[in-house]
Write a structure and sequence with these properties.
Layout lengths: L15 H4 L6 H51 L9 E5 L13 E10 L5 E9 L6 E8 L3
Length: 144
């Protein structure tokens, strides 16, 4: 008695040793690539967020410096009279510029004259686009 064996037409093309070897299928490879892609995208989003935060911090630091430098100017140089509200303009690096090239705008306002007539309270405000202004108040001496 003879037995009939049915073979697939492709079974003779791939040896049995190769077919039984463990390996990655196409689906497993695609899943792995998808996971790696999401990891890269997450790193890219974190990098962008970090850059934006650093840029905002740099702008705020420069605004604080501009405000504090004006207050120090009033503390070290005592004017005969307090100037009326004056605007100063600065570019993105903090260098003085005209109104057309401005990025930062600094204003100084007399808030209150002291009853003792030896000090004034001033407010220095530094504003720039898309941010809340930095506001500093300080007591400065005046000539008697």
């Amino acid at each position: 008695m003879s037995t009939l064996t049915i073979r697939s037409p492709h079974s003779s093309l791939v040896p049995q040793a190769v077919r039984s070897r463990p390996g990655f299928t196409l689906i497993e490879t695609l899943v792995a690539l998808t996971v790696v892609l999401f990891g890269f995208l997450a790193a890219l989003v974190m990098q962008q967020s970090s850059y934006r935060s650093g840029s905002i911090a740099e702008q705020q630091t420069l605004a604080v410096f501009l405000a504090e430098s004006k207050i120090e100017e009033f503390r070290n140089y005592i004017p005969d009279s307090f100037p009326s509200e004056k605007l100063d303009y600065f570019d993105r690096t903090g260098s003085p510029t005209n109104e057309a090239g401005r990025y930062y705008t600094r204003s100084v306002t007399l808030v209150r004259q002291s009853p003792t007539q030896f000090t004034n309270e001033i407010e220095v405000k530094v504003a720039w686009p898309k941010a809340n202004p930095v506001v500093y108040r300080s007591i400065v001496p005046i000539k008697s």
